[in-house]
Structure formats: C-alpha cells, structure tokens
Amino acid sequence: MHNYLSVSPEVQAALDKGLPVVALESTILSHGMPYPENVEFSHKVEEVIRGEGAIPATTAIIGGKLKVGLTPQELEIMCKADGVGKVSRRDVAAYLATGKTGATTVATTMMLSEMAGIRVFATGGIGGVHRGAEVTMDVSADLEELANTGVAVVCAGAKSLLDIPKTLEYLETHGVPVLGIDTEDFPAFYCRKSGCKVDCKVNVKEAAAILKTKWDLGLKGGVVIGNPIPQEYELDFDDMEKVILKALDSAKKDNIRGKDTTPYLLAHIKDCTKGVSFASNLQLAYNNARVAAQIAIELAKL
Ligand code: PSU
Ligand code: MN
C-alpha cells in the first residue's frame, strides 16, 4: 500500500495522534466548479475545517500516487483541471499505473479515506440512482461504495436531477443509515427538503455516537449524513425542477452517457442559473465542512 498511498505529513501526524481529520473530494474542484473561483473555494473549505479545530485532507490521484492531503500546488493542479479525469472505483488502478492525474469522486474519496484511516468526509452532494435508471441502469458507484466502505459522508443530500426516492431505496437495501442534521427531511442539495425522509434526525453528537456504534459492531459500510443548505441560500424547488428538466432533455439530445452524465448535467444547471446556484453551492459545501469537522471532533472524543 505504501507504494501507492501518499498521506501528507500534517494529515499523517494528526491521524497518529487520533486528532479529528476531515476528507474532501477533488471532483467538486475539477469538474464541478469554474477556475479560478474553485481555487479560492479549495482553500476556504479547508480553512472552515481548521476553524472548527479539525485537519482537512483533500484527496486526488497525482503522479501515480493516491494523495491524501494536498499542497497548494497540488490544489492548483486539481482546480486548473488540465487533462484531469474523473476517477471512480473502476478507474483507480488504471490512473495509478499510467501516472494520469485524476479527481476523486465521493466513491474514491471514501476509498482513500478508509485506506488512510479517516472516518469523516465532507462534500456537496452524493451521486445516486439517475432518473430513468430502470432503462439506463445508471446508478452511481458512490452508492455501492457507501454499502461497503466505512466512511461517513456529510452532504447536502442529493441533487434532484437524480431519482431521490430510488436513491434512498438503494441505500436502504444496502443497509446504509441516512441521518439528517436537525431535520427529518432528506435534503435536495439546493433545497432543504426533497419530499423524502431520513431514517433518523440527529445532532452532531448523536451522529458521532451512531458512527462509533455502527463500526464497533463491525457493521460494514458508510453512513450518509444529510445537512440541509442554510435557509438564506436555499433555491426554489420548482424553479430548479424546470432547470433540471431542461438539462435532462439537453443531455438526451446530445446523447450523453455514462460517467459524462453527471458533469454534463451539473454544467448545464450552472449555466442556466447563472451565478445564483454557484453561490448556493459554495455555501452548502462550507456548511457541510463545518458540520463534518464537528462530527469528527465528537468522534475523536469517543
Ligand atoms: N453531484 C453533485 N456535485 C458533484 C457530483 C455529484 O451535485 O460534484 C460529483 C461527485 O464527485 C460524485 C460524482 O461522487 O459526481 C458522481 O458521479 P456519477 O454520477 O458519475 O457516479
Ligand atoms: Mn453513472
């Protein structure tokens, strides 16, 4: 493993001492946000975690290594995203063996976190079961990773471009707990409610206790922790639905398939909603980083 895994000295020192560490993904940087705004975000989201008293660990695949904890230069590479691919579980070995630079998704960030010994990860939204999956079979590898890998993912739920009820059915089938921070509603990224419920409304202390208990019992897999977008940044559900329907229609016309689907839909939504959705995206990600740090701190105490 040491031939492949490269944990930054700061993150390794924190893990050795049992200090709270929060993982961050890089697909959100390389394929989810424009350059150079993503550079500011990549630093600020790490500062939010530090501000709470935890250590951030952004992940990526660079130079044939699985990187956990990036330098400012490495963050810049991921933000510029020149020739940077989107790496899910199936792509990991090929990227490592060929030395290609890859951005980690939720699935691969969970993998790298578990390899390094990090238990809590903050992101924007998870992948899920796509609308029309009964025909396309397009189900994100994020869900399979949640079924198998012992990392908690703090997110603002899932974008309603996905089929949220089917996504939650999949998680239930695979035994993945879905918690809500101070809410009974599973959030829909830009919106605080999706129309679906979480399994359990919790505060950060309870979330940490549930994680400890699940893993003490040897129960395999991760946990989804839904943290709704702050009210002042919430967007209108029906407005977003119109934009999403247009994006789905356009993806169909352009014959977009496979791993390109999610980045295509995200880019389309961003263009259609101008800066408004981007501002919300930033704020919900900061909010998730804050709560993930608080949960990591509570977990470190247990
Ligand atoms: N959903 C978002 N923003 C994102 C992603 C999903 O609202 O940036 C990214 C994440 O990295 C997630 C990946 O893990 O897309 C899922 O891609 P796919 O649907 O191809 O599994
Ligand atoms: Mn897919």
Q: Could you explain how this protein is built, in words?
A:
There is one protein chain. By secondary structure, this protein is an alpha/beta fold. The chain is built from 13 helices and 11 strands. The protein has helices at 9-16, 27-30, 37-52, 72-80, 92-98, 106-116, 133-136, 141-148, 164-173, 204-216, 237-253, 261-272, 274-301, and strands at 5-7, 21-24, 55-62, 65-68, 85-87, 102-104, 120-122, 152-155, 178-181, 200-202, 223-226. Strands 1, 2, 3, 4, 5, 6, 7, 8, 9, 10 and 11 form an 11-stranded mixed β-sheet that branches. Strand 3 (55-62) and strand 4 (65-68) form a beta hairpin. Helix 6 (106-116) runs parallel beside helix 8 (141-148) and helix 12 (261-272) packs across helix 13. The mean pLDDT is 97. The protein binds pseudouridine-5'-monophosphate and manganese (II) ion (MN).
SSE run? EHEHHEEHEHEHEHHEHEEHEHHH
Report strand %: 5-15%
Low-confidence stretches: none
CA-based gyration radius: 18 Å
Small-molecule components bound: pseudouridine-5'-monophosphate, manganese (II) ion
**Taking all residues together, what is the mean pLDDT?**
97
Q: In terms of structural class, how would the helical and strand content be classed? A: alpha/beta
Q: What is the straight-line distance between the termini? A: 28 Å
Let me know the number of strands.
11
The biggest beta sheet, please?
11 strands, mixed
Shape: globular
- Give the helix level as a range of percent: 40-55%
Number of helices: 13
